[in-house]
Write a structure and sequence with these properties.
The protein has two domains: 107 residues; 73 residues, Orthogonal Bundle (Type 1 dockerin domain). It is 20% helix and 12% strand. The protein has four helices and seven strands, in the order E-E-E-E-E-E-H-E-H-H-H. Strand 6, helix 1 and strand 7 form a beta-alpha-beta unit. The longest helix has 11 residues.
Length: 182
């Protein structure tokens, strides 16, 4: 479904969803927050290696959570109703649990669109390559969201010629997605 989607950060799963299947969100490394609908059935390894996952809201009506759902997690807290299945599951899996009343809706995180240097919501156009090339050549200085979007090669946090090469390869269809992770 969304496996390996590196740009996904927050999810509110709609009430029309009744089950989440095997590895549906596995390796979504930017995913930080999830709100589940009432009564949803959670399959095996659904959030496997979502290493940035910080919070998940599990309603009291959820009574089935599969195997290794949160394997490879970071500092996760499950929010739910005290004495519910969510709390029992959290305790069994050594995951932090907090009452739903403590859940604070996170501030929206700016969306990173790797390769969209000119912020026009299109990736890998000539204008993006020119702007990144000028930044790498120290002719201009990218700032803010443009600089964040310019990190097309995440092996190095600095924006440099490797990012420009990744963006050009993406434009030439030698890479199928950005950021390039090596």
């Amino acid at each position: 479904m969304f496996e390996d989607c590196i740009s996904l950060t927050n999810i509110i799963i709609p009430d029309s969803i009744t089950s989440i299947g095997y590895r549906a969100f596995a390796n979504c490394k930017s995913l930080t927050n999830i709100v589940l609908p009432d009564g949803v059935i959670i399959g095996d390894v659904v959030f496997y290696y979502c290493s940035s996952l910080r919070s998940i809201v599990i309603p009291e009506s959820v009574t089935s959570i599969g195997r290794d759902v949160f394997a490879g997690r970071g500092e996760l807290t499950i929010y739910g109703v005290s004495a519910s299945y969510a709390e029992t599951y959290a305790n069994k899996e050594y995951i932090s649990f907090a009452d739903i009343s403590e859940f604070v809706e996170p501030e929206p995180v700016p969306t990173i669109v790797y390769g969209d240097i000119d912020l026009d919501s299109e990736i890998g156009k000539i204008a993006d390559i020119v702007l990144l090339g000028k930044h790498v050549a120290n002719k201009i200085t990218l700032t803010g969201q443009s600089l964040i979007n310019a990190n097309c090669d995440t092996r190095d946090p600095a924006v440099n010629v490797a990012d420009l090469q990744a963006l050009i390869k993406f434009m030439l269809k030698q890479l199928s997605y950005l950021p390039y992770e090596g």
